Amino acid sequence: MHDRSGAALDSRAQQDLALDPFRIAGEPYYRPVAHEVALFEAAHRSRMPVMLKGPTGCGKTRFVEHMAWKLGRPLITVSCHEDMTASDLVGRYLLDAVGTVWHDGPLTLAVRSGAICYLDEIVEARQDTTVVIHSLTDDRRILPLEKKNEVLKAHPDFHLVISYNPGYQSVLKDLKESTKQRFGAIAFSYPVAAIEAEIVAAEARVDRRTAATLVNIGARSRNLKGHGLEEGASTRMLINAGLLVGNGIALAEACDVALVLPITDDPDIRDALRAAIAACV
Ligand SMILES: Nc1ncnc2c1ncn2[C@@H]1O[C@H](COP(=O)(O)OP(=O)(O)O)[C@@H](O)[C@H]1O
Ligand SMILES: [Mg+2]
């Protein structure tokens, strides 16, 4: 690789360049809910692998973006899915004009150059894929690149973060005990009403009264959890409803589109939710 003056870049400069797309320029808005910022900073200082644990749409991804910005670290995010292989994370040889060339996967790039690597919704990945993180999450901090016959020692700034939604647990989709036990966990849940209203107002740009009504609706939907609903409406859903309101849709209809219809196919539960919404507006 060459810089503009044509001089060859040393490997350090090459790594910095590779991380450029992963640097977070502006502060991502995050409203702290409890002690999570200080906990993450402490875990980051000791490079303790961190698990962000909580229901969908409660702020885990936004939090890690905010923390990466605050700590001045690049953030490499991988959305995990069932078909993801270890090679998708680690890297592979690809054919090009000059022959086969090794391409680092996102995990390897983070390990080599010292980024925060965020494996989002890790339970979506198969267990035989997630075991590649094991040697990185104990005191060895190494990543074996088997196909390349190389053992990569993690950069001192490399930090591994995963998110995990305990609600989706099933025997087939869960982390191995040996994987879980490598992480410190920070618990996330929906914030108390006043803070959640502040977040909805800020993100959907609606007034505080509308935000408070949406949060009230969210709380009622969460009471239906276990009574026909797997999860109540998330903060994300309340923000979506707020965005529709901001674009001229009446609140009841906005809630229908943003939360009632997506969350359940059961007509009785829909009626119960619609009744709860009608009582709030
Ligand atoms: N504490 C918070 N501060 C700021 N925004 C938040 C917060 N919690 C939730 N949000 C909002 O909710 C949305 C969903 O959060 P996200 O981080 O994507 O959830 P998760 O990763 O837990 O599924 C975010 O895009 C953001 O708008
Ligand atoms: Mg997320």
TrEMBL record:
ATPase dynein-related AAA domain sequence ranges: 49-183
Pfam families assigned: AAA_5, CbbQ_C
Domain CbbQ/NirQ/NorQ C-terminal: 196-279
Alphabetized UniProt keyword annotations: ATP-binding, Nucleotide-binding
UniProt keyword annotation of Cytoplasm present: no
Protein family: Belongs to the CbbQ/NirQ/NorQ/GpvN family.
Protein name as catalogued: CbbQ/NirQ/NorQ/GpvN family protein
Source species: Mesorhizobium humile
